[in-house]
Structures are given as C-alpha cells and as structure tokens.
C-alpha cells in the first residue's frame, strides 16, 4: 500500500477508495480516544500542530506517537480542507476497517446481531451503529446485493453519527445466502421489522441467538431477506404512518432485546 499522504486522506472521502484500501478516516480527539480504547488499528495520525488546542487532542496525539503510529503533519488550512467536521480539533486518524466475512464468524452463544439491508442515510446508519454498541450487539451484518444505494458504514458522515461506535463495531459482510447459512449453522433466529407484520415486537422473545433485520427507510428489507427470516414483527403506531425512521426503529427493537436479556 502507498504511504499515507494528503492525496490518499482526501481520496478516502470516496467509497471506492475506502473499499479498495480497507481504510477510513475519523476526526477529532473523541474519536481518537475511542479508537485507542477499542484497540483499533491506527494506520496514521494526521495533525495540524497549531490546531491541537485541547489537552485531550494533545494527549492522544502524543500517545499515538509514542506507540509508533506514523504521523502526517499538515497546516491548519489543509486539515480543515481534509475534514468533514467543522471542528476536527487538530487531528484525524486513518484506521483499518474492522470488517470480516460472515463465513468466518464463530459467535458466542446467545449472540445478538443487527442486520442492515439497504439503509440509505449515513446519519441513520451511524445512529443505528451507536445504539447497537450501547446495547451490546456482537456485530452488525451489512447485506450486500440487496437494496441499491445502501450507505457505507465507513462513510465519514456515518462514522460521525456513530459517535465513535464504528471504531469498535465488528462489521460483517454477507449476502442473502450466506446470511441464511450463518443462521442455520449457529441456530440464530432472523427477525425482520416489517410494518404490517402480524406479531407485535414486544410479544417475541429475543433471549436466544437473534439477528434483528432492519431494511431501508422507504422500502424496508428486500423480499429475499424477508423470505430468509424466521419471523416478522411490527412496531405499533397510533396513527397511519407507513413506518418509523430507520434509526428510531433500530433503537426500539434493540432496547427491547437488551431489556429482555438483562431480565433473563
């Protein structure tokens, strides 16, 4: 791989470059702390020394330097041009994506997964990742070959919305066939959120190995993914809305599963 330089950091805004290199960028001292705590693979630190104004940002860049992480120094103006955030706090990190094929997963018993099939908004996806992290999800499965235009979990906007959760999230790649095979191999029940499903989500047990399936904002999960599921559940609504926001729906389902597991 080429050395980390300004051109590569800028190119990592593009999905094609992120997929080709397996790298992505997070911005700010808070994300640096999360990355170090999660033992994420930090490929390079990009800093503007004159913009390292907070003690946290100064401490984190010093710690990464002591660990031997390569450091790319740029001007404050260059950093602002590279960053998506208004206040990158003088530091960006280039990280290796924590990504694995579903065939390689050997899960613990009673694992809980979030399956994403076609969520298009990076903000919604990032918020769902943040909630998944908060509720102890073992990994997030991204279904490939389903809905067109699905968001990339390593998009800068998604990473920002995750509030650091992306650096410790196991992102798992699957298609419908490998998802179905994984569920069969591990005894995992696939439960899809479907607006007009017969079962209320609160009437279902999530105490065993479970994968909660969340579809795209407008169309929901694809027919192929729903067909692979063992059960469909709905979130009741008092008015004739078509559906909830995808991030909100993920939070409702994940916290129900989390609560049941804590009470078990």
Can you characterise this structure?
- The protein is an alpha/beta fold and 264 residues long.
- It has helices spanning 6-11, 15-21, 29-37, 55-66, 76-82, 122-134, 156-161, 176-186, 223-228, 246-263; strands at residues 23-27, 42-47, 71-73, 91-96, 99-101, 112-117, 139-143, 171-174, 189-193, 199-200, 210-215, 231-234.
- It has an eight-stranded parallel sheet with strand order 5-8-7-6-11-9-12-10, sandwiched between helices. The chain has a four-stranded mixed sheet with strand order 1-4-2-3.
- Strand 7 (139-143), helix 7 (156-161) and strand 8 form a beta-alpha-beta unit.
- Helix 3 crosses helix 4 (55-66) and helix 6 (122-134) runs parallel beside helix 10 (246-263).
- The model has no long low-confidence stretch (mean pLDDT 92).
Pattern of helices and strands: HHEHEHEHEEEHEHEHEEEHEH
Helices and strands: which structural class? alpha/beta
Radius of gyration: 19 Å
What proportion of the residues form beta strands (DSSP E)? 15-25%
Strand order, largest beta sheet: 5-8-7-6-11-9-12-10
Low-confidence stretches: none
**Biggest sheet architecture:** 8 strands, parallel
Q: Report the average pLDDT across residues.
A: 92
If helices are DSSP runs of H or I spanning 4 or more residues, what is the number of helices?
Answer: 10
The total count of strands amounts to: 12
Helix content: 25-40%
């Amino acid at each position: 791989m080429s050395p980390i330089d300004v051109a590569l950091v800028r190119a990592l805004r593009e999905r094609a470059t992120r997929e080709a290199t397996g790298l992505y960028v997070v911005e700010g001292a808070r994300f640096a702390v999360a990355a170090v705590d999660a033992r994420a693979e930090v490929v390079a630190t990009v800093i503007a020394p004159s913009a390292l104004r907070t003690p946290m940002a100064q401490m984190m860049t010093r710690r990464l330097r002591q660990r031997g992480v390569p450091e790319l120094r740029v001007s404050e103006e260059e950093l602002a041009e590279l960053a998506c955030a208004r206040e990158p706090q003088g530091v960006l990190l280039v990280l290796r994506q924590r990504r694995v094929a579903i065939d390689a997963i050997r899960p613990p018993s009673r694992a809980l997964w979030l399956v994403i099939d076609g969520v298009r908004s990076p903000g919604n996806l990032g918020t769902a990742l943040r909630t998944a992290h908060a509720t102890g999800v073992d990994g997030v499965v991204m279904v490939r070959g389903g809905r067109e235009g699905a968001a990339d979990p390593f998009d800068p906007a998604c990473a920002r919305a995750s509030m650091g959760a992306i650096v410790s999230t196991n992102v798992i790649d699957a298609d419908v066939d490998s998802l179905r095979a994984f569920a069969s191999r591990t005894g995992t029940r696939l439960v899809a959120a479907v607006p007009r499903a017969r079962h209320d989500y609160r009437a279902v047990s999530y105490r065993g190995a479970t994968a909660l399936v969340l579809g795209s904002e407008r169309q929901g999960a694809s027919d192929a993914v729903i067909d692979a599921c063992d059960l469909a559940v709905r979130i009741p609504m008092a008015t004739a809305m078509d559906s909830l926001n995808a991030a909100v729906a993920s939070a409702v389902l994940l916290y129900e599963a989390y609560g049941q597991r804590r009470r078990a």
